[in-house]
């Protein structure tokens, strides 16, 4: 199995991604989960990460708390999407598993220093603050990262937090800029992909039909999350953004994209956090990211439902 660290700001869709990864030990070895401030403040994201590990029956998974705010800006949160707790929807128990003592950034640095070079993949499901802070503090770890697979950005689908920007990149554009300039192989799941990964009614029914605690929780999260998106975007169900990252690691053939140059806007107030993606290759800037544009949604959901049903 591939060794991964999940960097996350749960978030209902982050929660489903974590469950999917923890349900896939033959493909993925989760070395740890690092929480970051994003959808809701850090006290809630680290707590939510522990709730999800317990729900998966994996309370031994190490969870670390990381940065409580972006590198240079004030934190912007998304309670309007995820509710006050970040995991609104079902009733969830208070977690009893411990939070690790170490800071998430130290865990990232130490793990990358100790593991053989090129054997650890970072899965980023929130603002990129923890990862960019680790790279800034310990630049020698950058070349040791195997790959970063992240949810963030948009091209044709433009923005969901401003007209120009996607939430994860917008919250910490300086951190995203560091990651996109790092030279590490990047696989990027933008809104162009995730807005096609919709939780339609039959898909939500499939989670509920599992008759398990996990299946019921995923269905309740999807119902909560969906209210917002269906009203706002008029789409047939809500996008399950972050699980696309995990699905890609398990079955990359589900996704289609292009290896292109992507740069992050950090200066303009109007388009702050925009992922300027050279989709049509109109510049000669070197490609730095595999930027996805499409997925086979039925294949994605059959993989997701199969993995979630194991828990
Ligand atoms: C991203 O922002 C968060 O609200 C979701 O968890 C996802 O990571 C989508 O823009
Ligand atoms: Ca997220």
From TrEMBL:
SUPFAM superfamilies cross-referenced by the UniProt entry: Nucleoside hydrolase (SSF53590)
InterPro entries cross-referenced by the UniProt entry: I/U_nuclsd_hydro_CS (IPR015910), Inosine/uridine_hydrolase_dom (IPR001910), IUNH (IPR023186), Ribo_hydro-like (IPR036452)
CDD domains given in the database record: nuc_hydro_IU_UC_XIUA
Molecular function via GO: purine nucleosidase activity; uridine nucleosidase activity
Keyword Hydrolase in annotation: yes
The keyword Lipoprotein is annotated on this UniProt entry: no
Superkingdom field: Bacteria
Gene Ontology CC: cytosol
Protein name: Pyrimidine-specific ribonucleoside hydrolase RihA
Species annotation: Roseisalinus antarcticus
Chain's gene name: rihA
